[in-house]
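Before the break, one more example. Copy the sequence into your notebook; we will annotate it together after we see the structure.
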Amino acid sequence: MSQSRLAFTTIALIAVLTASAVGQDQNGDSVASFIHPDFCATVVVHPSQIAKSELGKQVQFPALVRSLIEQADVDADTAMQFWGPDKVTRLTALIDPLTGGDVGFLPGLVVEFQTPATGFQAIRALWPDSRVSTTDNSLLVELDTLAGEEIRAYIANPRTVLIAPASTLEKMRNAPQNAANQLRRQFENDFDNSGLMVTYVSGPALKKTQELTGLNSRELRDDEQTDEFVKTLLLDVLSFSFKLSVDARPTLNLKVNCKQATTAVELSEMLNGGVDTLVLAISTPESRKVLKQEFGTEVPSPVTGLIDSPAMRDFIRALQFERHGKDIDLSLEIPKPVLDLASKSSLELAESAKPIPDDGNWVVMFRSESPKFWNTNTNDGPNRFAIPLSRAPSNIKYLRLKHEDGSSVIIEMSKSQLGKQFERGQFGWVGTNLNQWNGRHLGIYDRRWTDNERGSVHIWPLQNRGIRGWGFGNHVKIDDGQWHAWGGKTIPKTVFEISVKSGQLTAEERQALLK
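Here is what the structure looks like once it is written out:
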């Protein structure tokens, strides 16, 4: 994942973790006006309200937001000037389902700022390489790509910015105002001043599923390839809303509206019966392995500590879903022990994500014989070590790739480039850890060493050829797993170390600098 795409994901993550809603924007278009009939869900964040609440104070919400921004590998101080909880009035995620291919959904974001005319600066703070469209001065393009689509931003009014993949942004900008719109109607009905509000309607997602599969409702229910939970959300549930109040006594509220009363009976029994299963599932060794595979790193200890705590388990077991006709309801106050644990965990999480103190010397980011640990939080011995790229010092100038025999090569590098692929002159860097041809690609390459020879190792694979260099790659025309290279030559498995430096190079180090 590139760093600017991570910035987009970070904003979306904030929207998914916390939210609130206000019905109309006092300074322009309402959020509802951007809801297209194709959209199936909304998630809304009111950062300033959360930060001022007792819940926000307990979980150190501003520090948590800063921690998330730092994961995007941008200048956090600059970004917080525009994206801090006191700067953003409201942030709303609009979910565009089943957009094609293997993409489950694309999120569109509506960001409303406290101060007028900050949209351009805010976008540039997270996407410094974005540019203004040549055909529309209110449109910023080339933020990055997501699922093969270009991410764009549109300045809707002096306080409001829309950010989304191009097709979803087009829908947001041109949402019909008079058409039948299930989600918009449900959103307006559900709206209150809750600290978190999620609204979902099944109609748009079901319609899109039927268009893509060619199956009617009966055929979809009988389809063995469709997950049972997905069938329930599409075929049995009309809508649901989830709210979290952030007042003095934080409370969770969930309401599910089913199509049939019999379905509500079955679903409520399933939910109540699944609570104990959830308690067990979230803390088994197997579930931890799944989470590690999903996120590419160990689950942070503050998170596992919260999950494993007796207070959290008691809270989960206290969840009781009640049925009223076709509706299923849940209302539960969050107990103080859980809030205290959440506060402790969020502080530890924010602290663990801070950049490493910079004294100008080399900072080791990775040391292993396997590239799979790149950009993870791993410490399983001296030769299986890595830290997330977000923790690199902000002002790095150089990257060093070192062989276990002590030899090394150095290239110029910035923090924002660490997770990317780029070229400067005849040399290039691959920090994406691309997994292709049965091998991951991580290292430095020399464009003069482009070939398609069997048995060579390509650090950067191209169409019908590739480029050799230093680091990890695939075994050309054999593709029998992960291989290593040094100086363009295939070598036995070895430990590589990747370090970064913000200070000046020594005379000896300058001899290893590739230019």
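The chain has a mean pLDDT of 83. The first helix runs from residue 3 to 17. Try to locate both features in your own notes.
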